[in-house]
Amino acid sequence: MFCHLRPVRRLFLEKIFPHWFLYSRALSGAEAVNALRPFYFAVHPDFFGQHPREREVNENSLKRLSAYLENLQKPGFKSLKPTQLTFYIRETDQNSSGGQEPFSTYGFRAVKFTLHTRDLLSTVLYILNSCSLSTEHIQSLNTNVHSQSLKEAKKMSDRPIKWDKSYYSFTGFKDPEEDLEQVSRMETTLTSWLDNNGRSAVKKLKNSLPLRKELDRLKDELSHQLQLSDISLFCYFQGEKEGSGCTIIFTDRSGMSAVGHVMLGTMDVHHHWTKLFERLPSYFDLQRRLILLEDQISYLLGGIQVVYIEELQPVLTLEEYYSLLDTFYNRLLESRIPFHPRSLRGLQMMLNSDRYAPSLHELGHFNIPTLCDPVNLQWFILTRAQQARENIKRKEELKVIENELIQASTKKFSLEKLYKEPSISSKQMVDCCKRLLEQSLPYLHGMHLCVSHFYSVMQDGDLCIPWNWKNGEAIK
């Protein structure tokens, strides 16, 4: 019925992209992920912790986008149904002046676009252009993609396709707008959700126990063979001898992270890992220089400590983080702004490349832009120093209360494990646990409970609940 649309779509793409561009070297899955890094950083749900509705929309859209990209890579696929997506985009250094929808007071805006592309490259370009994100970095991924073609790609319309309701009735496809409306209308209660999902979680947990046991056995065996001190369940392990005390993380690219963890790309073949291990001495040398650079910055700023907080910052390589520090340090040297020696000891600051103005985080650390004006920086830090110390003190007090409430909740509900996502603050966890202790929840007996931003049953049976439910109903 709709086959006549295919040549129209093909003609449209040929007008937008040059003929040779349509047949340029196809991106691999790993290259597509790398090319979409700015997009993932702008929409990642963990950055919407204070906005559960927007977080949930982004999570749902990311799942559908992942399925779309996965289908594009399947051999022999002919065409995909148009997929309409909605994302809330955070303000970053790339999109703050994009000229599209204005940012809200919370620093994000909604973007809607419809995917109707036929390959990874055009899909990546279309997503980045729709979100007003740069596409210049893609030139290094595909030698056939020149600057002119990227400029022409930006002309591609980001206006969503509006299909008649009869299209969804005839094809059986889901209407994305109805999905989004359903998300906004849903008022899931904690007790009703546990009633509907408790048995499923128990079954999954029971099925996962043999695998967990086997995992523990393999951890012990690997620790003995490689002389490791520990192997974490969260996909990294720490070595004391062979790895010089390194933490190794399995991720999507190889190298060393900003905090000194050795990253092994899961898409790389093992001989690439071997080459990486051979380069470890040079990485350790760069790490020592990085620590020295942090100390020099600290000295210039009155003793404030420079920190890198993985949960609150994008994943950077050691080289990328060193470059940020070096740029910031040179700006400080040029300005020579005066700080009394050691006057800011006990305070912390975190460098950001996607901000334009300094800010004070509720946890007590300063968020400082790499290109911040030094004079404004001095005024901001000095006027907020006392508030920062109060925030740090409050954070430490909340951490003590949080640990006590976790123990009390674990005991009351006979939980096997109670934990939280890294993006959940101590304040949120305290609020959640206090209200949990007022409830009677028999389904939690013997379960693994994770406090998150949404409801979910994980594959291994762990239960995820939002921190901000109230009287059994999620807060809006």
TrEMBL record:
InterPro entries on file:
DUF4460 (IPR028031), DUF4461 (IPR027989), TCAIM (IPR027986)
* Residues of the DUF4460 domain: 24-133
Q: Where is the DUF4461 domain?
A: 188-235, 244-470
Q: Name one Pfam family in it.
A: DUF4461
Task: Provide the protein name.
Answer: T-cell activation inhibitor, mitochondrial
Q: Which organism is it from?
A: Galeopterus variegatus
Q: What is the lineage of its organism?
A: Eukaryota, Metazoa, Chordata, Craniata, Vertebrata
Gene this chain is encoded by: TCAIM
